[in-house]
């Protein structure tokens, strides 16, 4: 792939996370029916809790992942945990399990142990999948390494086996999307074969969802059925498959994929962020609608900073 194109995809995955998170923020926790009653079909950025164009914990933690990969030229759990702690702004809306794990680390627990007993056996929320895009980007040319690092990055806050699988699935999908030319026909069959070779999706939670994804791509059910059966709540075995389906069912346009995801309702900022990461990695930064980009916050760690993180990840990997 041409270098400029690859760089554009690196940036697309990071900014895609930001855009999807921001679009979903205003309706986080709304049901599909509530969204329809209040907004009809969401097509634009809405005024949100921290203002229009602002992001939530998803993007703030994704920034930490990217900053850490850049600082130590690869994955380092201790450094990444410290980046999360340094960046933590509770106004962005963090999950209670993540706060608990990061507090454990602040109190001296190692990053490998900090998330283990959150909610009993570790969290299987989507908090480690929502932030994982930079790992999919950084290790896109080595899927075994990508898997290993994604799993470890989840351990910091989401140590339950399902939490780790969800983050790995999301990271592999981002990495795979980076490697596909977006002007060619994307083969869903090849993608699903790729996943089955690399990831043990035999747990009943994930295998059921992938059966549904296959069915839905043929049947194209209505949004009510997708929201109800595939699910878009905070549990990672619901929201990651739903993000993947939102992408696969809307392969042609970044805009369509992200809007589809958000209009399902549920954990809209995170489903938006994860769909945006995959679609951004596939289409590239260039294909993210300018009317959305123009509306994003651009303060200290806003749009320009996130674009720069994508550029630096690229420079680091390709020695330029
Ligand atoms: Mg959020």
UniProtKB/TrEMBL annotation:
Pfam family, one: ADP_ribosyl_GH
Co-factor remark: Binds 2 magnesium ions per subunit.
Residues annotated for Mg(2+) binding in this entry: 56-58, 267, 269-270
Keyword match Metal-binding: yes
Transmembrane annotation, as ranges: none
Top-level taxon of the source organism: Bacteria
Protein family membership: Belongs to the ADP-ribosylglycohydrolase family.
Record-linked PANTHER family: ADP-RIBOSYLGLYCOHYDROLASE, ADP-RIBOSYLHYDROLASE ARH3
Protein name: Poly(ADP-ribose) glycohydrolase ARH3
Organism, as annotated: Selenihalanaerobacter shriftii
């Amino acid at each position: 792939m041409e270098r400029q194109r690859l760089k554009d995809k690196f940036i697309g995955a990071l900014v895609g996370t930001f855009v999807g998170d921001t679009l979903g923020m205003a309706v986080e926790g709304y049901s599909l029916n509530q969204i329809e009653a209040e907004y009809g079909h969401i097509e634009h950025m809405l005024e949100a809790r921290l203002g229009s164009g602002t992001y939530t914990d998803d993007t703030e933690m994704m920034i930490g992942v990217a900053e850490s990969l850049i600082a130590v030229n690869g994955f380092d759990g201790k450094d990444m945990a410290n980046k999360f702690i340094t960046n933590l702004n509770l106004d962005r809306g963090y999950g209670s399990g993540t706060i608990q794990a990061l507090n454990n680390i602040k109190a001296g627990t190692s990053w490998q142990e900090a998330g283990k007993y959150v909610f009993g056996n570790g969290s299987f929320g989507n908090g480690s999948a929502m932030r994982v895009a930079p790992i999919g980007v950084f290790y896109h040319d080595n899927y075994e390494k990508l898997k290993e690092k994604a799993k470890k990055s989840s351990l910091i806050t989401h140590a339950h086996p399902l939490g780790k699988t969800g983050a790995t699935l999301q990271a592999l999908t981002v990495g795979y999307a980076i490697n596909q030319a977006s002007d060619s026909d994307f083969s869903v069959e090849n993608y699903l074969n790729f996943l089955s070779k690399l990831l043990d999706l035999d747990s009943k939670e994930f295998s059921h969802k992938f059966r549904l994804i296959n069915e839905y791509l043929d049947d194209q059910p209505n949004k009510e059925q997708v929201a109800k059966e595939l699910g878009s709540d905070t549990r990672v075995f619901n929201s990651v498959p739903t993000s993947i389906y939102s992408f696969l069912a809307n392969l042609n346009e970044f805009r369509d994929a992200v809007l589809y995801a958000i209009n399902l309702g549920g954990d809209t900022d995170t489903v938006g962020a994860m769909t945006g990461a995959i679609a951004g990695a596939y289409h590239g930064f260039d294909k993210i609608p300018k009317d959305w980009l123009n509306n994003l916050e651009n303060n200290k760690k806003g749009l320009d900073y996130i674009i720069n993180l994508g550029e630096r990840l690229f420079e680091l990997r390709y020695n330029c």
